[in-house]
User: Fold these one by one.
Assistant:
Number 1:
Amino acid sequence: MTYLLASTLPAAPAGKRLRALLDRPGILAMPGAYNGLSGLQAKAAGFEALYLSGAAMSAQMGLPDLGILTIDEVCFYIRQIARVTGLPMLVDGDTGFGEALNVMQMVRAFEEAGAGAVQIEDQLLPKKCGHLSDKKLAPAADMAAKVAAARRARRDLVIVARTDALEAEGLEGAIARARLYVEAGADAIFPEALSDAADFARFAEQVKVPLLANMTEFGRTPFMTADEFAGLGYKMVIWPVSALRVAAKAHEALYATIRATGSTRAMLASMQTRAELYATIGYADYEALDASIVRSLVPDGRGE
């Protein structure tokens, strides 16, 4: 796809397209994409929806995931990914960037940028990754007010309410919060940092809206497959930072190799070739749009 061609742009809003995916049987798998290139690669692998993680956006900016990002910074990534992939995306809205009016502004901005869904969590700032300890919870009524505000502001956007209450209030407390958020207008619930299959199953028994499972690495949730989450009653599963983790490890190896050897030769087998990169981003398609650009010949060498 090239986003310069109107004929390639999706006709329906992203929220409607995401709802259609959720209405199908089975679980919707949404890998994390943190920029346009990773989004294109996820699409090429066959995924139909994506997740945009606040932790991934923060980390690629060299910042911790503490609620530091602004609405405009997040919209930059939404637009970048949405315009090149055309895929609906669930976007991490952290705590909503403030109170009810701020949440409404966030919803409108995200939807206009191309998001299909937004996730709002019930922490207080400075928020933390859901798999860390000592998170500060917002009063449940305050979070419900944010959900209601998001519902009021949206056109088609799917509202996903995340609860981080397991550690402080236990499973039943998290379930009670989830039910309140559904009453306030949440379309789906994201119970964060559940630690075993029994808790996932219990949550699904008690909360009867689409549920999202977070299969992040190095956290409190044991490794499970998308099919296993589906069997426990879940409709969505995300791998929020996986792509960034793999890329960051590759960066470490590359820079260490250059520093040690003064060359990238030892890393060539781990690299995407120039031809592969150009195929991913549709380089030739863009050239074809402008007759003034002479079609490029890709060097048949191993240098780049």
Number 2:
Amino acid sequence: MSPWLLLLAGFIILAGAVFLARRSWLAQKATGLPLARVSVIYSDSGAWEKVSEPLFSATYGLTGKPDYVLETKKGLVPVELKPSRQSEQPYESDIMQLAAYCLLLEEDWQEHPPYGLLRYRDKTFRIEWTDELRQSLIDLMEEMRELNTVPAFKGGPLPEPQHDMTVRCHSCGFRYVCYPGETN
């Protein structure tokens, strides 16, 4: 075989390898997850052979399953994916859900996460795990527990839904309370 032909074949292979490496890098960047070396150490994804157990806090009576927990140089980072959401700012409810995962990592794994990642369709938000966010979450959980002690929520009539989105009712985990005979 001619040396020029070998050189051309080597160039084509090298160009293909560079193309694939760049494509992989762009795909990783598009996820919005850190590009630094990280390891996924927990997943609630069906893509893994074994889905991880829920995190649990007896102190707060809280349990949950983040989509992922990453091990980074700065510590453990919970990741929550909301692939259908599009917004320039994260929803407060999503921030509180991510905060709950930060609290669960503190309680269940004795790890203080520096932040959490909230991934929407086109944007990733880095939510710092601060003392203020921790306290806001604890206050919210106390408020929710107080609401749960109101007699109307213990078998009595429920208040009117606080929204006009029937889609939310259809996917609500408590639909059976409002519509006892129906199944999802």
Number 3:
Amino acid sequence: MKHETIKLEEAKAKSALIVIDMISDFEFEDGEKLFQHALPAAKKIAKLKERAKSVNVPVIYVNDNYGKWQSDFRQLIEHCLKNDVRGRSIAEILMPNDDDFFILKPSYSGFFQTPLELLLHHLGIKNLIITGVAGNMCVQFTANDAYMRDYTIVIPKDTIASNSEAANQWALHIMEEVLKADIKDIEDIKLG
């Protein structure tokens, strides 16, 4: 994947689409519960990603390193695509393009101990469209850190998933009320 492909002047919208933890084998405790909600979200993210790319909005995959400090994002993709794992279909739906960006994170927030903030600054990004899993964990922690850094936050409610619908709705409520996130359907997201 090439980082040089998107240049600052191409990121016209000053927005970025953030995809959190969707490239995963989902082979972990409660992975089956999360997967059943993540698959429909992945299909919506794919549609939103297609729209974003059509207007040069950068796509940034922010993924857990699962404690494998010697792995990289390409190995994670390969693992999900070439093995008989639960998350294979999601990896196929959301296969990163060569011009997408990726960041591995060691913990819940996409900002904690990662170069995400530096990348966003380099691209001139002010608005984050945050998608992914789990809504009540990594999405919410990332949104919290984005709020603390004065980013405008948009959460397409049909593009995040948690282990249960109740947990997801609670996370959306907190992000809207506390973090002032703009919660909407993907059809209402304006890009470009």
